[in-house]
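Running this now, will post back.
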Amino acid sequence: MVATTTEQLSALSNTTVVVHPLVLLSVADHHARSVPRGSSKRVVGILLGQDNGTTINVANSFGIPFEEDEKDTKTWFLDHNYIDGMWEMFKKVNARERMIGWYHTGPKLRASDQEINDLLKRYIARPVMVIVDVRPQTVGIPTDAYFAVEEIKDDGTETRKTFLHVPSAIEAEEAEEIGVEHLLRDIKDSTTTTLATRVAEQLASLRGLQSRLGDIQSYLVDVASGKMPLNHQISYHLQDALNLLPDLNDQELTQSFATTTNDEMLVVYLSSLLRAVIALHALVDNKASIGRAELEESKGDKEKEKGKSAKGDEKEKGDKEKESSKTSSEDKGL
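Update: finished.
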């Protein structure tokens, strides 16, 4: 279905694409086995699941043979006979899962995406395209979902085909959650503490937020300079986000922020003070234990020396007694 009216566009924009972890693992494995390291090639596959209207549940996937000219992206080959064979086998395994779209590892849109999407309409009435970034540079959801639409311009000129971005989410069933937890348990570094892990996660979240703010800034600059057309839907979302920001000119809010910051800094100061006291106590205790050990060692050496000297005196006394007895016996013989 190609959206040509405002109602259809709004209905598509409210559609959420839910991707399961099994699909992400399958796509990552497909890319790792097919593309050598350092190459910019992408892999293409079919998505399986259920289309419930407002929610598209992507539960499974399989890769398909795909070749593309790196110099000319419009020159490509896709084996649709392979799709027919795989789909017949998947129907026998799970009849509830339908072909709902396709994926590729972009990580961005390509010029041939529209042609591939038109080809897959032979199998799917409303195909969803999901771009999975297998090597993400920023922290966040590594999926972007799109629907092919025909954009109607306000000036009445000819429509053009484009992709409409829709929200996507990562959700897992109970069995998938258990599997993901086992994987994370194997990957988790046991040498890092809980506090270090929390700080690292917060730092990664701030970096992701900074990246999103940079994208928003570049978009607004392009709109202001006339390089990109104004999208009212994006403007409404930005206005809603800005309306949620607190008014920093409010004296009461500023005072509450300062109070909270001072309380947190006081906890940090007390923690540093306690850490220093504990370190000094450990140092003094270590010095005392070393001193006691050295004192006991010196006492032991002195006792050993006394024992040796006592043994020497006893031996000397025994020798003298032997000599005296020998002399007396000689005198008696004479």
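The chain has a mean pLDDT of 84. More later if anyone needs it.
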